[in-house]
């Protein structure tokens, strides 16, 4: 049973509607926003619950271009991104699961997750700050990966909807207690995801700690512009605005060098198919994935923190779908899902192949707390951490 109605911006039955024509379904809380003018909407619904019984909510953001983004409060994750192709055919281009249990069972994928307190690796799970040594859980060989065994990806974040003049979204907050995963100080984090009619998915992070600490937040969405579960990303074409990258050792810890990409498979300064050099005989590719090679490196962005400059663009020539990344961060981890094997079922019963997605993780460089020459990740007590990263999707 549906009724068609028109009403100004306000909350109704858990739906935030911006002066748009909507179709309300009586049985469940859904909205079909119309495709004209300002039709932006955010809908809240129950996604599920954790084994401990904590409710997990989903926020569904829609714009006038037929694009939608789903954010869930478990791990403050991007659970789905629906985007039309050049012919208007919509596909979900984000890898993920239909329920909370999927995210728990395959936690090591970090699908869509907000990563904290520290994105990527810290060598030996240790760092020194203000004369003290801090020991973190070693959950990736000898190193700490993505904040340790119980990182921000496993927290259920508090959430509330956002409505501004030009965007809809969700604000998520999480307080990480002093000593959480070994990190010093209580850290309060606020994260805002917004979607607008320019197809910009904007993520703004802010955080404050009551002691000096280290922080490196990022988002771990895996994109496949052909549609999640629809083959590999090897024919998709990437441009990374970076002359240099941070080479790693065999445990994927940076050596400290900033190496030129010129003459290496890491050179994406001009648009290059992701699969073109992925099989090259190259020690770095072997470190990233010993059996078949793969990308899993931090590029030193030439954008130097300028949010107006294009950092990364990846396009799928077949579908015409494109994602661009803009960020205030100095680096990006471009990871080609080297450890996916098609061995489990994701959303809609689809499986995800080896190289079935790529991540664009805006970040400070891995292991910065042990690398004095890298841009600092120290957050002093009372200072504000701030990051903005925009994923812009085409066609609009
Ligand atoms: C890391 C990979 C890791 C993956 C986990 C990426 O950010 O760079 O090394 O395997 O996350 O899913």
Task: Walk me through the structure.
The chain has helices at 100-105, 283-288, and strands spanning 2-6, 10-12, 15-17, 21-25, 31-33, 41-49, 55-62, 68-72, 77-84, 90-92, 113-115, 121-122, 126-129, 132-135, 144-145, 158-163, 167-176, 187-196, 200-209, 213-214, 218-220, 222-223, 237-240, 244-246, 259-260, 272-273, 296-300, 312-315, 322-327, 331-335, 358-363, 378-379, 384-394. The strands form eight sheets. It has a nine-stranded antiparallel β-sheet with strand order 16-17-18-19-33-29-28-23-26, with no helix packed on it. It has a seven-stranded antiparallel β-sheet with strand order 2-3-6-7-8-9-10, with no helix packed on it. Strands 22-31-30-27-24-25 form a six-stranded antiparallel β-sheet, with no helix packed on it. The chain has one domain: Beta-galactosidase, Chain A, domain 5 (Distorted Sandwich), CATH 2.70.98. The chain is built from two helices and 33 strands. Mean pLDDT is 92; it is low at 1-37. It starts with a strand and ends with a strand. With 396 residues, the chain is mostly beta strands. The structure holds beta-D-glucopyranose (BGC).
Overall CATH architecture: Distorted Sandwich
CATH topology label:
Beta-galactosidase, Chain A, domain 5
Helical coverage, percent range:
under 10%
Name the ligand types. Answer: beta-D-glucopyranose
The total beta strand count reads 33
Overall pLDDT metric: 92
Taking the alpha carbons of the first and last residues, their distance comes to 31 Å
> What summary fits the major beta sheet?
9 strands, antiparallel
Number of helices: 2
Number of domains: 1
Q: Uncertain segments of ≥5 residues (pLDDT<50)?
A: 1-37
Overall 3D geometry? globular
- Order of strands across the widest beta sheet? 16-17-18-19-33-29-28-23-26
Structural class: mainly beta
Task: Assess the beta-strand content as a share of residues.
Answer: 35-45%
Q: Report the C-alpha radius of gyration, rounded.
A: 20 Å
Name of the level-1 CATH class: Mainly Beta
């Amino acid at each position: 049973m549906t009724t068609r109605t028109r009403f100004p911006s306000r909350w109704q039955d858990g739906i935030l509607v911006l002066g748009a024509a909507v179709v309300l379904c009586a049985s469940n809380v859904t909205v079909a926003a119309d495709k004209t003018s300002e039709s932006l909407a955010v809908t809240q619904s129950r996604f599920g619950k954790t084994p401990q019984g904590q409710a997990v909510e989903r926020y569904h953001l829609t714009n006038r271009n037929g694009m939608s983004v789903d954010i869930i409060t478990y791990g403050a994750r991007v659970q789905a991104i629906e985007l039309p192709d050049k012919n208007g055919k919509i596909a979900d281009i984000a890898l993920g699961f239909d329920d909370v249990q999927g995210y728990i069972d395959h936690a090591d994928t970090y699908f869509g997750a907000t990563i904290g307190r520290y994105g990527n690796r810290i060598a030996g799970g240790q760092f020194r700050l203000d004369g003290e040594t801090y020991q973190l859980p070693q959950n990736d060989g000898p190193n700490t990966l993505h904040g340790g065994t119980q990182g921000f990806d496993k927290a259920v974040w508090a959430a509330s909807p956002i409505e501004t003049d030009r965007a809809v979204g969700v604000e998520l907050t999480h307080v990480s207690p002093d000593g959480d995963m070994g990190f010093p100080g209580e850290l309060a984090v606020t994260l805002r995801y917004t979607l607008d009619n320019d197809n910009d998915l904007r993520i703004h992070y802010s955080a404050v700690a009551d002691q000096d600490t280290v922080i490196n937040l990022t988002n771990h969405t895996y994109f496949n512009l052909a549609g999640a579960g629809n083959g590999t990303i090897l024919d998709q074409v990437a441009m990374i605005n970076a002359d240099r990258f941070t080479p790693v050792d065999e445990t994927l810890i940076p050596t400290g060098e900033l190496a030129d990409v010129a003459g290496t498979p890491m050179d994406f300064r001009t648009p290059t198919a992701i699969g073109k050099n992925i099989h090259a005989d190259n020690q770095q590719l072997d470190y990233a994935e010993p059996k078949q090679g793969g990308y899993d490196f931090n590029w030193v962005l030439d954008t130097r923190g300028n949010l107006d400059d294009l950092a990364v663009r990846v396009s799928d020539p077949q579908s015409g779908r494109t994602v661009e990344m803009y960020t205030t961060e100095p680096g990006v981890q471009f990871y080609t899902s080297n450890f996916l094997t098609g061995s489990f079922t994701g959303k809609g019963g689809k499986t995800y192949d080896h190289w079935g997605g790529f991540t664009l993780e805006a970040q400070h460089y891995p292991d910065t707390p042990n690398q004095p020459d890298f841009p600092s990740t120290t957050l002093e007590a009372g200072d504000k951490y701030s990051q903005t990263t925009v994923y812009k999707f085409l066609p609009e």
